[in-house]
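Q: Structure tokens for this one, please.
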Amino acid sequence: MGPVADDVAAKQPAHVIFFKVDVDENPELARQYDVQAIPAMIKIENGEDKGRLIGYRSESEIQQFING
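A: Here is the predicted structure, written as tokens:
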């Protein structure tokens, strides 16, 4: 899902920020955000979890998730 997420991220305004995390190298962060499966995309607004996408998703699905 990395290349698709990279494409979506490149098209976002400055206030939308993407972070990639290697859960094998950062297991504490994975636990903190309760990541149960990968790939996982977590939408965080004002410090709150506003939803998740699990598994491979298309560019349009990711865009809809961000805007929704």
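A few notes: The radius of gyration is 12 Å. The mean pLDDT is 92.
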